[in-house]
Inverse folding.
């Protein structure tokens, strides 16, 4: 199989656009609401999810013909849970501050429906290279949405743009004091969970408009 | 359909492989994790003692700052200094040997940090409360480990909550407001600790206790009550030590 023929391109680009796991399939909403307070958290979370998703897809695809059908869910869960634990331990060793901020949400990648969903729907039916591309596509599709949501939440909620730097985060830009003096105020609602719902709703709307998705009435 | 033996064998092998992968990972990065944990505790102590954030940027810097400014000692319940391996003390369980971290700038006491720990709703909350040399007003409080719900009880570690302890609004007759730290001793010098109050502190003139109270967290009453309880309990253990520092300026 040629790596970048039109079929592989479709495997990658569909989940980013017309079949996005968050905005179209509405999977992984829990973490999309929880870790989108700051941009740097969303970026690290995206990388963690991409790693887990690609690895679990490839591993499960490799052993797909040997997995007894009756225990496939258990096997899928154990593979995913082990990978998530590895990510969690690595964060604790190399990005301690970030791991404290993400707290339980790294562990909760296990319950992110995107990963289980892709394993069941794609990895168990396709070869490893396709499964890998599917992981990349869905991982970026997930990341794209939570990065957009966190960008707006942090900018308008806290007035900063923070990038990950291995420590407590590098503040790339901060709304200047003169704006606040002129009467500008941060929207506190966006820092809270309802703010995430509102932004996420708007993003889903825009994304569906752009992708031209029509819901059956 | 695979046979039962095949299924059992498959699950067994997968478990062995995944298990060894996990233990191998954990084992190879355990030292790094422990270093991070140690630095995090030291950072919490330094933060409670109001050190500049620029001195806390990396693990090396934290250790260096800690070594050069902090005098770590153990005391017993009578306020006498005792020998101990301070890093190995289990703060939650050990009630006989009590660690004290004293910030000294040029041999002058600038603050005293004391470990506090106790049950919240789901977990034990660990932190440090630092007092000014008067052993009465709070210099800072920081929590570094807990398993409370993020967004609810988990807010105890957030700046808005810990800042409550050092920002008590005092109105003077002209109407301008100055902020002073909360106090753990009442007017007679007795340790009354600080209460986390459900709903928020009543700052009207009729509430004489407001200097010993901080705002609670909505949705986290059990966590807040836990903090109230263990602050009092832990501070009382240090009563004799704190009296000594207040009266003699040293332990």
């Amino acid at each position: 199989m040629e790596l970048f023929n039109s079929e592989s391109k479709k495997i990658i680009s569909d989940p980013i656009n017309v079949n996005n796991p968050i905005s179209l399939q509405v999977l992984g909403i829990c973490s999309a609401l929880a870790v989108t307070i700051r941009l740097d958290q969303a970026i690290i979370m995206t990388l963690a999810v991409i790693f887990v998703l690609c690895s679990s897809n490839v591993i499960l695809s490799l052993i797909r013909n040997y997995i007894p059908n009756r225990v496939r869910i258990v096997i899928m869960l154990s593979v995913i849970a082990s990978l998530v634990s590895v990510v969690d331990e690595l964060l604790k060793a190399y990005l301690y501050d970030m791991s404290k901020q993400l707290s339980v949400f790294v562990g909760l990648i296990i319950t992110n429906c995107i990963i289980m969903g892709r394993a069941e729907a794609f990895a168990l039916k396709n070869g490893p290279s396709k499964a890998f591309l599917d992981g990349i596509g869905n991982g970026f599709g997930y990341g794209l949405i939570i990065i957009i949501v966190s960008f707006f939440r942090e900018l308008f909620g806290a007035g900063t743009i923070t990038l990950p730097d291995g420590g407590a985060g590098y503040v790339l830009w901060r709304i200047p004091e003169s704006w606040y003096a002129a009467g500008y105020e941060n929207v506190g609602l966006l820092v809270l969970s309802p703010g995430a719902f509102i932004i996420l709703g708007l993003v889903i709307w825009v994304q569906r408009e752009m992708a031209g998705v029509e819901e059956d009435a | 359909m695979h046979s039962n033996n095949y299924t059992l064998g498959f699950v067994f092998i997968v478990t062995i492989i995944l298990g060894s992968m996990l233990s191998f990972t954990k084992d190879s990065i355990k030292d790094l994790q422990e270093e991070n944990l140690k630095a995090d505790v030291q950072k919490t102590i330094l933060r409670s003692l109001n050190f500049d954030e620029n001195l806390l940027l990396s693990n090396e810097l934290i250790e260096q700052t800690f070594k050069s400014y902090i005098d770590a000692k153990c005391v017993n319940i009578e306020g006498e200094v005792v020998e101990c391996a301070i890093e190995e003390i289990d703060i939650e369980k050990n009630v006989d040997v009590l660690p004290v971290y004293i910030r000294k700038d040029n041999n002058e006491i600038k603050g005293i940090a004391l470990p506090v720990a106790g049950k919240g709703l789901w977990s034990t909350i660990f932190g440090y409360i630092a007092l000014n040399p008067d052993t009465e007003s709070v210099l800072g409080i920081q929590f570094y480990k807990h398993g409370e719900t993020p967004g609810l009880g988990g807010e105890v570690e957030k700046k808005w909550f810990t800042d409550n302890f050092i920002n008590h609004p005092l109105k003077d007759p002209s109407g301008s407001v100055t902020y002073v730290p909360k106090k753990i001793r009442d007017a007679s010098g007795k340790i009354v600790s600080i209460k986390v109050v459900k709903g928020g502190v009543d700052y009207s003139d009729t509430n004489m206790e407001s200097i010993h109270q901080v705002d609670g967290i909505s949705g986290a009453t059990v966590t807040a009550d836990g903090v109230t309880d263990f602050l009092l309990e832990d501070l009382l253990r240090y009563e004799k030590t704190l009296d000594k520092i207040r009266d003699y300026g040293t332990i």
In short: Residues 69-248 of chain B form one domain. Chain B has a mean pLDDT of 87. Helices of chain B lie at 4-48, 59-69, 159-163, 221-237, 239-248. Residues 70 and 103 of chain B are 5 Å apart (CA to CA).
